[in-house]
User: Fold these one by one.
Assistant:
Number 1:
Amino acid sequence: MADSLSYKATTIKDSFLQDKDEQLILEEPLSMRIEGNAYAVVMRTPGDEINHAAGFFLSEGLVSHPDDFTTIGYCTEDGVNVVTATLKPQRRKKVENLLDRRGFVSQTSCGICGKELIKDIHQIVQPVSQALHISYQDLGDCVKRLTDQQSLYHSTHGAHAALILDSQLMPLAFAEDVGRHNALDKAIGQAFMHSQLQQSRLAVLSSRISYELVQKAARARLEMIVALSRPTSLAVDLAAQLKMTLVVRRRNGLVTVFCGKNRIL
């Protein structure tokens, strides 16, 4: 499945114009339905739809284990971008309030919408464990592993990426997407659907860290986020309450730890 297309463009440098082909990342809507009802529509880069939806439903608190799904499938008919999922009866009963709610917790486009949404988030996330410790030097290796795999970014300069690592800093899952939320959902979904979340310990992100990304990482029980851009204030507040570590590691080697510095050796 294509994840980019070639477009005609004109470059301008020192008053010289040059026509050339440029690769642009694809962006298309994906509808997610659960228990027969529409739940969310996200703008994303095509590919990895099952894992994307699984990671999204995990972050929303609708599932906690792959076995919570009775079915999850993606319609492959041309022009139809829909993932549908059904839950086992015992899980459906447990999350009835979430299924009945209008909208969804991960407000990926408009940001946070009031105190009620913050309350919703705190109901589905819990403080993470304190098992991970890595060195300052390891942070640079984590970022390099992310950037080395960003083939879609290198061709389009328009993709975000997320990498999931275990406690030994071995890669478990990787994804790229036009949306930073989608990239993390896809990577978490890969680990989730392959029953590897137990080993997952940290996420490396190409983007800034928003509160939604902290929420998603916490639902996956990740202890640390390493990113290339600064977090928002609400992201730090939420991560601190969840005992997570937020680190920004610039390409020039500068490291800034915003919370959870006890995990950095």
Number 2:
Amino acid sequence: MASENETGAKKALEQGNQPSPVHAPDENLSAEPNASGLSEDSALSLLKRANLAPEVLEQLAKNGNLLKNRKVKLALASHPKMPRHVSLPLVRQLYTFDLMQIALTPAVPADLKRAADETLCNRLDTLASGERLTLAHRGSGHIAEALLADAETRVMQAALQNSRLTESSIVRALTRADAPAALVEAVSHHAQWSLRREVRVALLRNARMPMARAVEFARTLPAALVREILQNSRLPANVKEYLLADMAKRHSGKPRV
């Protein structure tokens, strides 16, 4: 025979969004609900409660019928009381834009956000062009950084405009040996990023840096820094020689050829 607490929990589940009776204590939330009998709407209503016990959440996560519902799975994965051994596998099962939502929700723990970003990064090669474009515009900074290497120029350019992209992400993308020429060209002409000193340094180390922009940027940096950059730069030898010669002429006061 069901206990009084179990009966109270079941009634609360069936009532959905209706307020709990005054006499119904919060400990009812710790009783295991009959998850097999829950509708999707009732489950979503229940999952709005921030003080649900982990046992209740685990019971819901075992219901295969409920997990077929995208919204229920998302609510379970992102619930603050869900144990990690349950939420992490759930996160990796989410759809593309649900993963994006997890990664951008402030209340979601950092490790779940990382898991969502990593799962998205692992799926990028399988996503349609339009999905990657949306992620480039709206995704996290981590996803935007990954999409800087996208083969489609429009996706890469959208990632450059992502408000969550950071200077350190740009620098990391440029220092990779396989950084696309289109990215180097785009960053070197970007109205915001091309003005950053660390970005210019990274560009001058990249083998695909256009020579005209390399000369222009080198002239904005101290001579000692330029020499240091060129020591481990992947620029072609003739470009390095030209930059050193141009710098020597400027500092010697001789007219440029």
Number 3:
Amino acid sequence: MDRPTSLPWHSAAVIGNSGFVGRRLQERLDSLGVNVRGFSRSTGYDVIRDELPLAGVEHVFHVAGQVFVPNAWSDPASFYQVNAYGTVRVLEQCRRAGVPVTYVSAYVYGAPASLPIAESAPARANNPYAFSKLAGEEACRFFMTYYGLQVSILRLFNVYGPGQQESFLIPTIARQVLDPAVREIVVADLGPRRDFVHIDDVVDALLSVSGGGAAGTFNVGSGESWSVEDVIATCLRESGTSKAFRDRGERRSNEIMDVVADITAIKAACGWMPRVSFTNGIRSVLESVRS
């Protein structure tokens, strides 16, 4: 599938346009000539208090939210307020304005019974972040069913790429690999495997689903998984660096050891499939960290 080069509408709002996904999404929309209105905390917008000026807006991307699972454990109420109640407020304003919505959700399946994981698998949120995003999904389905609002839900697996916060796994490892002062790379646990999907592919998915008018719930992943050890090995190989590495033997509570997305549904709905290989994606992160 080629990257979308045109869209059936000319104006859009991106709620959460200063975040990792929202920023790249707005950049792509700008490049396609879409008139974009961006809203984020950095520009003074509060999703749980403020009203959206939606006159003339033809599509809303709701990307705003509190992220990062470790923080969610220490403040679950705040995550729920922003990610669930904030989503209800966005949906209600879009309902009144008659504007379709694309909602960016997350991995909500907990420990899977089998791999790959299809959208039909039971949702078993196993951390406060996933719980809050799943509540946002339920609000979307309610507004679809009882108000007729057009909503697409994209369940993003482990997104990575240039510009991601350093607290996330791949930029943390890339920084250790490239820092000459770091003699040994240390992580909590080498074993867990994740379905890593590059930010460019995620933006393609958002535009493919929204531009094609597809409604429903769709996984967005690569359809493969890599361990933490694989990430380190790939970073070392692609940087031409040799360092020792180890883990601290710290297994997180409720850890899921392997995750692979079934992406059949989104392929069938709009033809999307990932384009960025894991190796090329890691290269893009290393280049970003170097610069």
Number 4:
Amino acid sequence: MTDPVEKVAAAVLYEGYVLWPYRRSAQKNQKRWTFGGVYPRAYSEAEGGNDPWLMQTQCLVIGDVPVVEIKVRFLHVVDRRVGRKHPDGTLEFVDELRVGKELYLAWEESVEREVVVPGVGVAELETPMRAGISIPAGSVEEPLTDDDGRVAGALVRSWRSLEGTVEVGAETVRERLFKCTVKITNTAPWSGQSREETLGQTLVSTHTILRVEGGEFVSLMDPPEELGELAEECENVKTWPVLAGEEGDRRTILSSPIILYDYPKIAPESPGDLFDGGEIDQLLTLSILSLTDEEKEEARATDRRAREILDRSESLTEEDLMGLHGAIRGFQTLRGGEQIDPFGVAGLEREAPSSVSVGGVEVKRGSRVRLWPRAGRDIFDIALSGKAAIVEKVEQDFEDRILLAVSVEDDPGREMVDMPVLGHRFFFSPDEVEPLEVEQ
């Protein structure tokens, strides 16, 4: 049985790898490898640090003598070239080649890489432990044979060298409480290549799995009240650590470049990875099945994993497809069990006051506030902590709670705040905001 943490980690590893419609020619697949990149330090510093050379996970561990194991995984970009075989045995590299019924396209693939720091006592990590990343450049050739068994060409896959370090350290915060830090750095040599070329020496889709024996991790999303301040002080760079595994189990953390909640899970109805985490499995699968034969052929030739997606989608039964239609995870009683007609909500609206008092300051439409979301809020709300915002409206819900609809002051999408679908509007209670004086 596959470890549920590993299943989620695998989904993170390939998120955005190749996107619908899974064809090389699709515009959205022209710029790839956008998640979790740890770039050569020399390149990052030359480019002003927009592409990071460091990824850092920092978390809290409780226990008498906890032992941690660290696993860092990432993708290594592989260049796939297509060669046509000439009678003299030489290869002529071409953009595409048809051999028999199969079409082969030149593109980029990836290979999974992994660095493991075996179990070590946290107390022993006051002097950090380092594991090197050293992968030499290489290439491999795969012959392509026609229906008669003659070699008609070859796929040549090549990759550049990678160099870096995984550093694991810890410090004692107080009795039975430790702060553990994992730093991933890229020290690959760089000599002024373009970003596209530099991706060949980048740790792509990098993420970290931390496991502990003899102790437990503290949720950074929803820490115990007495550890809230210490949790906020944890410095995580280009990654978001969450508890993973079975609900309530605090022995594993998944730290990924994609924002997740504690205890993320793969939906049991999902037939397999689609690499499009923002999409709905059913709609995406139906879209795959609607591709033309020519589009499917290109997708299969684009990438082995795209081929697997098409083959799996075409093998789904009607029952499988209906299973993707929707699922109820649980029920919640609303308003003391009173039945509410979902299509008869007229008269349920509450007239909100035009303003509210926050710390003795009147807050109304147009007021500037700073956001301080409480622990346990939505991860996107937590990401806005400390941001200045504008109150767009004071609202009141069905339970008579006052909410402030705000837009973030430095959000480039603020002009869309009143658009019903795309509006960049967030909701906070009055005790989650700090009034700001109007700047003169």
